[in-house]
Amino acid sequence: MTREPRSRAGQSKRPGRAGRDVPPADNIPIIHGVIPPRDVLLRFIAEHPEQASKREIAKAFGLKGEARVELKALLKSFEEDGLLEKRRKSLVRPGALPPVTVLDITTRDIDGELIGRPAEWLDDAGVAPAVLIRQSGGVRRDKAPVAGLGDRVLAKIFPAKERGGPAYTARVIKVLDKKKNSGMGVFRAMAGGGGRIMPIDRRGEEMDVDAEFTAGARDGDLVEIDVVRMGRYGLPRAQIKGVIGSVASEKAISMIAIHSHGIPYIFPGAVIREAEAAGPATMAHREDWRSLPLITIDPADAKDHDDAVFAEPDPSPDNPGGVIVTVAIADVSYYVRPKSALDREALKRGNSVYFPDRVVPMLPERISNDLCSLKEGVDRPALAVRMVFSHEGRKASHTFHRIMMKSAAKLSYQQAQAAIDGAPDDKTGTILETILKPLWDAYRIMTVGRNRRQPLELDMPERKILLKEDGTVDRVFVPPRLDAHKLIEEMMIQANVSAAETLEKKRQVLVYRVHDAPSLAKQEVLREFLQTLDITLVKGGSMRSNHFNGVLSKAKDKPFEQMVNEMVLRSQSQAIYSPENIGHFGLNLMRYAHFTSPIRRYADLIVHRALVGSLGLGEGGITPDEEAALDDISAEISTFERRAMAAERDTVDRLIAHHLAGRIGEEFDGRVSGVTKAGLFVTLPEYGADGFVPISMLGRDYYIYDEAHQALSGEKTGLGYRLGDTVRVKLAEAVPLAGSLRFDMISEGRKMPTAVRSFHKSGRRKDGASRRQPGMRPPRGRR
Question: Where is the S1 motif domain (predicted)?
Fold first, then answer.
């Protein structure tokens, strides 16, 4: 994917950037001007991740001219062979830890040094690597945070230079959570009074509770505890300080996720006091736009409203058939100033986290649901962008404004869509001609531009859980995807693009939302899979989103459509925040920055401050200290976003496992959603839940794992299972606290294509590993 270079005036000397000069290790043989051997090159990349871009590698080995071309080809072959994968602009070894990650400090080594492990690690990725925490020596002695055993930290990761110990070392950037003598667990009552606290995660340990410290907890309650005594012998002792409720309730389930992922959910007193002391914004440095009929369109149950829209025909004779689209976003930067208590807490959280029963907000309700919520008929401060589009959907210009607005109407998606579809209600009927129809006219024009851009068009329906009054699952359903959703989405995307473009023009540093192209190794895995379906995927490093759209269109309305969508999704990189712009592959955009949700995303707040400061729009602009810290801030909020996603996913898994725990032995229709050497992952479409079928439960045959075909095939019978197959399974086990389900396979496998049956008859895979180890156990827990 071709990306335009961007001016970074004044930034090249910023400390901590990837391009700084770091002398290679003395023990790596380097002959300047000569392409190094494969093992030397791979070792250099592993030991110097900060110099792992093609440009820095060439510089380190003194390569110029033809030698650089040869190096580029060699590195590309490493990617194709799966020896390296591309992350942003750098090359890394597959499975390597990211350069900045969250660690839990779990133990000490024999020398007393602290050892941590990644806080988020997939069960099927093997044992989480150990990381040696470096805290002594160097010029940063007085600046580096001091961490201790049991702490959760954000750390800079480095490959270990000494062999025989942990594979990585780390420097602590920030202590996220200090060790506390408190936690959560499930109370199990014991005869004679008292009881035992059962851990809610695999790394926890059981604790004893004396009868006088049970606080009225009943068997099976989720409780908050204080550890009162840790001894060398016997179990630790705890006392219960609060009862959350039955572990089967949804409230308890979301609290488990909040606790296990270390999500801050209680606002400190200083933050609440600061929020409560805030008052209405003034008109200083603001334009009065209260007469412009901006409206909000949100989910029916939304409690905050941070974006409003309006559209009208462009009256300029130079733009016949064109439109002007206005997007106004709540001015959070006016209330949340750098280094304030509100700001520190918002950065600690990174984003709001959404569960079926609750929201853990980034900002207190006084800010998010009141002063910064664009309520109907109430004066509210906002940052607005006016965008002019031609009749062909091309953006001709845009301008940013700091305004005071008054929402003309608060609508739900369904309400706005019904009005456009010919069923207006009392509220939408009065604004149908003047506000809603012009919005839809503008959306149709913007759709022309979107279709020309061709972003990645994956069809992956999102399921929503509807709860009963008692907090248990009522049903799982897929909400309809309305044009009203698409309208707001496209207008927000264009507002985000405009923010990035304006800040680049001002040469202002910012936080981009970036999405790298799929690595060559992932492309090759997808290509091999598609070949089994007679679908081709072009080769080369200039892959664009429309190439994947071509694949998706060939699978449209075919039995394997969902399977292809899932495989294309798996091939994609993960979007992150970064001060370095590499574009957004999925949206097919060169410049993109999150601007439209500062109530719930810290990245958007940074962009708001950058706009206020660079455009001279008054108080609340970005500070030099913030600009210098954007590398670390970007790494933190990217990590916290992944944390939120994992917590939300775990809660849904636990909810469904609780819901199905009373249905052991029942049969369900499912679809194979994952194929591994150890067995099959099966999704129940009715619930959106995943469960595992161990390979030992597939039958008495000897099963061969074929990665290219995403299949398990019986060696004797030729019967097997492929990704996307519809199957019948029986629920054998449900573990609610782990959120895991185990199935037995009922359906007989189908006849595999000849290519699958003849796959590696020698009994070895391409990498030389055995096809299946007899008695192999499935991964623990969930995916």
Answer: 665-746
Model confidence pLDDT, tens digit, residues 304-316: 999 999 999 999 9
Question: In terms of Cα–Cα distance, which of 756, 748, 735, 758 is closest to 697?
Answer: 748
Bigger pLDDT: 690 vs 276: 276
Query: Cα(first)–Cα(last) distance of the chain, in Å?
Result: 31
For 373, phi then psi, to 5°, come to: -95, 125
Is it the case that residue 117 has pLDDT exceeding 80?
A: yes
Distances (CA, A) of 423 to 147, 416, 419, 429, 660: 60, 9, 5, 9, 39
Q: What pLDDT, on the 0 to 100 scale, is given for residue 551?
A: 95
- Residue 185: C-alpha distances to residues 119, 224, 242, 508 (Å): 19, 7, 11, 48
Phi, psi dihedrals of residue 170, rounded to the nearest 5°:
-145, 150
pLDDT confidence bin for 248, thresholds 50/70/90:
low
Can you read off the two tokens belonging to residue 285?
């440095």
Phi, psi at residue 448, to the nearest 5°? -60, -45
Dig out the tokens for 645 from the structure. 């996603």
CA-based nearest residue to 496, from 573, 405, 577: 577
- Exposed, middle or buried by CB within 10 Å (0-12, 13-18, 19+), for 647? buried
User: Are 102 and 156 contacting, i.e. CB atoms less than 8 angstroms apart?
Assistant: no
DSSP string, 395-409: EEEEEEEEEEEEBSE
Distance of alpha carbon 117 from alpha carbon 153, whole angstroms: 10
Q: Where are any strands of DSSP class E within 321-367? A: 323-330, 353-354, 359-360
How far is residue 583's CA from residue 516's CA, in Å, rounded to a whole number? 7
CB atoms within 10 A of CB 352: 19
Decide if pLDDT at 192 tops 60.
Answer: yes
- The answer to whether the beta carbons of residues 371 and 270 sit under 8 Å apart is no
User: How many beta carbons lie within 10 A of that of residue 404, not counting itself?
Assistant: 18
> Can you say whether the dihedral through the CA atoms of 161, 164, 168, 173 is positive or negative?
negative
% of the chain with per-residue pLDDT over 90: 47
SS3 state at 87? strand
pTM reported for the whole predicted model? 0.77
What tokens were used for 671? 């679809």
Distance CA 327, CA 329 (A): 7
| CA 302 to mean position of chain CA atoms | 22
Distance, in Å, from the CA atom of 158 to the CA atom of 170, rounded to the nearest integer, reads 6
Reading phi first (left if > 0) and then psi (alpha if -120 to 50, else beta), residue 384 is in: beta
Q: Judge contact between 585 and 574, C-beta under 8 A.
A: no
Tally DSSP H helices, then E strands, for the chain.
19, 34
Starting at the edge strand found earlier in the chain, the sheet holding 703-706 runs: 703-706, 711-714, 719-722, 750-751
What average pLDDT does this structure show over 693-697? 91
| CA–CA gap between residue 651 and residue 640 (Å, rounded) | 16
Look at residue 69 in the predicted model and tell me its pLDDT: 81
Please name the amino acid found at residue 614.
S
**Contact partners, residue 293, CB within 8 Å, separation at least 6:** 310, 408, 409, 431, 434, 435
CA dihedral 231, 237, 242, 246 (to 10 degrees): 120
The predicted-structure confidence for 514-545, as pLDDT tens digits, reads as follows 999 998 888 888 998 898 888 999 886 678 99
CB 532 within 8 A of CB 755: yes
Residue whose token pair is 């185990």: 742
Cα 441 to its chain centre, rounded Å, is 33
Between CA 620 and CA 624 the distance in angstroms is 13
Is 348 in contact with 264 (CB distance < 8 Å)? yes
Furthest C-alpha separation in the chain:
88
- pLDDT tier, 74 (very low <50, low <70, confident <90, very high otherwise): confident
Determine the pLDDT at residue 361. Answer: 97
